[in-house]
Structures are given as structure tokens and as C-alpha cells.
Specification:
The structure is a single chain. It contains three helices and four strands. The chain is an alpha+beta fold. Strands 3-2-1-4 form a four-stranded mixed sheet, sandwiched between helices. Helix 2 packs parallel to helix 3.
């Protein structure tokens, strides 16, 4: 079936599909974290498009995505954009990353900004 994938990749896909089954009709907040940057995007799986997104690769975040304070800046920027896009109920897809450090700081900043996760 998915023999070409590693165990870690299969686990991420299984978790994502389980989240989709448990939260039908909600927007998915998907996070990507690399060594230097962090990105978050709101994906509407029913329509198949991105509602809004924020990344530390953008012009205003030059050199500020690799630490917790940079992740908080990205989270507050995303919360502002999500309010403008009138984002309703959403659920957090951490993408297989542990909920600590930059991922937790990003999520907490989005909650402080008014996003219901």
C-alpha cells in the first residue's frame, strides 16, 4: 500500500486522515517547521484551497523565524489575517511535530489573537 514511505511519513499521513475524519467541515491549520523557518496555513479541505497563510520567509520577518519569539510573531500575523478572512471553526494539524517549543508558541499566539482552536 504505502511501502515507498518511511514509518514516520506513514504515521503523519495516518494522523492527518484521522483528524480529517474527526473534524468534518472545519478548516485545518497546518504547520510546517524547518531549522530556520516556520509556516502556518489554513486549508479548507472541502473546497481544496488555502484560506490564509503566514510564514517567517515573508519580507517583514527577515531573520526572525528560527526561535520562539519569531514563531509568536508569525502566529499573531496569522491571527490578524484569519480575522480578515472570517475564519470559523478550525483544528490544529501539527504535522507530526511535537507540541512544544516553536509549535506551541505559534499555537498560543494564534489563540491570543482570537483564533478558536
Amino acid at each position: 500500500m504505502l511501502k515507498h514511505l518511511t514509518t514516520e511519513e506513514r504515521r503523519v499521513l495516518a494522523n492527518r486522515s484521522a483528524l480529517k475524519r474527526k473534524n468534518p467541515g472545519k478548516v485545518r491549520l497546518c504547520v510546517f517547521r524547518s531549522a530556520r523557518h516556520i509556516e502556518v496555513q489554513a486549508i479548507d479541505d472541502a473546497k481544496g484551497h488555502t484560506v490564509c497563510a503566514a510564514s517567517s520567509k515573508e519580507k517583514g520577518f527577515k531573520g526572525q523565524g528560527w526561535n520562539i519569539s519569531g514563531a509568536e510573531l508569525v502566529g499573531t500575523a496569522f491571527a490578524e489575517r484569519a480575522k480578515k478572512a472570517k475564519l470559523g471553526a478550525a483544528y490544529f494539524d501539527r504535522g507530526g511535530y511535537r507540541y512544544h517549543g516553536r509549535v506551541k508558541a505559534l499555537c498560543d499566539a494564534m489563540r491570543k489573537g482570537g483564533i478558536a482552536i
